[in-house]
Design brief:
By secondary structure, the chain is of the alpha+beta class. The chain contains three helices and five strands; from the N terminus they run αααβββββ.
Length: 121
């Protein structure tokens, strides 16, 4: 349980700070979620297909895998909504880290700001 909580907190922080910061600091290793910079790029590219594409139905999924690191994941669109007038998407991540028995799971809300950027909330 503690591993999961650390991973969720670190994941939220990493996604909120952006991928370059996550790749430099990589706080995910502290929670056991040791993702490479390439893992983060693959994860973000898969997630973007769900949150930035209009008309994706709830339940749509995207997968990513990095053959070099052995890490992979599945992302599911679990909700569409609005926050303070901004369109939002709720994504559930299941990340499988090489040599770790249980996948790490966390949920992230992404909202489209008035300038067109999608930010983690």
């Amino acid at each position: 349980m503690r591993k999961c909580l650390y991973a969720v907190a670190a994941a939220g922080l990493s996604l909120a700070l952006g991928l370059p910061a996550a790749a430099q600091l990589n706080p995910m290793t502290q929670g056991g979620l040791d993702l490479t910079a390439e893992d983060w790029q693959l994860l973000e590219a898969a997630a973007e297909k769900l949150y930035a594409t209009d008309g994706k139905p709830v339940g749509a999924t995207e997968n990513w895998a990095n053959l070099q690191s052995g890490n992979s994941g599945k992302i599911e669109l679990i909700g569409n909504g609005e926050y303070e007038g901004m369109p939002c998407r709720k994504l559930e991540h299941a990340i499988v880290v090489k040599d770790v028995a249980d996948p790490f799971r966390f949920t992230v809300d992404r909202c489209k700001t008035p300038d067109g950027d999608w930010k983690a909330r």
